[in-house]
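Long-time lurker, first post.

We've been arguing in lab meeting about whether zinc ion would sit comfortably in this protein at all. Half the group thinks yes, half thinks no, and nobody has a model to point at. So I'm putting the question to the forum: if I give you the sequence and the SMILES, can you give me back a predicted structure of the complex? Inputs are below. Any interpretation is welcome too.
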Amino acid sequence: MINRAFIKLALLCALSICMITARRLEPVVYDIEQTEFAQQLQHAIKMRDDLSATTNKQQPPQASTPCSSPSSRWLKSIIADVSEEDLTTFFDNHLHVLPFVYKLHVAPRQYDQEYFGLDGEYTQEITSVHNQAQEFWSDSGVRDEIYLLSAHGSDLADRHDKLVPTLELLFRNTYDSDYTVYDHAADIQELITRLPGGYNFPLLTFNAFATDEMDDEEDDSSIIIGDGYFQFQQALGMDSEGPEYAHAHEFSHHLQFLLGVSDTQSGIAQVAKKSELLADAFSAYFLAHDQGGNMVSDEISNVHSVAFSLGDCVKSSAGHHGTPIQRRCATVWGAELADDREDMDKIDLFEFQNRFDTWFETVDDLSDSCQHLHSAAASRSYRILSFQVMTLLIGGFSVLL
Ligand SMILES: [Zn+2]
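Top reply:
Settle the argument with this. Predicted structure of the protein with zinc ion, as tokens:
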């Protein structure tokens, strides 16, 4: 297998090559590494490592931290039966990226054949909410045609037509007669067969993100969701509203492309706590609005739970998306705005953003019930925000898992 250092070198090489032949490739790979669920992956692996270290030393488990992420706990359970060597090889070879790179840059565009979920069980739901969102936000200036894409681990089972071209795109300069792309593909497929669930192993596709139209005219604006996300929601018993929430959240990133909130490189939304919580708020606003998703209170309550499940506790990371409580509270705030009688007409995007900015100032001071813990929250939050900005700048250096 190609080791991590080799891959980093390969990506750097790809950067210079992409100036000529594949301009979008290398930055896109880095961006995918940082999209929606990278923080949970880091957290889950760290939790496993911490537990392993504690067990080896025969020490009692440490007390639980105040922040607890359902998605990180689930991921930890997913990787529990994978050997450390296989897990290292998995990430060193970017297996969690391959199905997305295949779909975005190798697969022929056949939008009418896309299906969501391992067996297409969420296709109708995703398609329906997509049509609602395009209609609801049509006056906002968002693109008329945002396309739906799905990522499936099973695509990697097709060695000749899918896996090999994807690897060639990513690692083109790393192969030689001693180790060909076919050797690499064989090694990867052998590893996948050892993973729980094989090609349906959720980590292969545990991600979702929005892509904006890129320089290349062949690239469309899209929303891409991997099977792993649906498997996660199903495991937690939240797959009634979970799929709609994921779509609405990604669609909200397209609104942010309009607002200029979500800084982009090569068309993929960068992650940052504020823009993620704004996307959560937009999502809940749309799903609760009677002209949008028109969800009833029980359904919106489930949306709050889904948002909570996706929070992460990697607060010091540049890619931190918000804690579980903060993500739930962002959807509570957005849904309440939709319920506000004075705002029955759709709110202007910039007005929405201004109101959100005010709410966000005290986001680090929210209780479980989304109330402020301290009366002095506002003054304190400015110091916290300043720290976050610094963290964002410094944290940009740590990219790979
Ligand atoms: Zn997001």
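For your lab meeting: The two ends are 17 Å apart (CA to CA). The mean pLDDT is 79. Whichever side wins, do check it experimentally.
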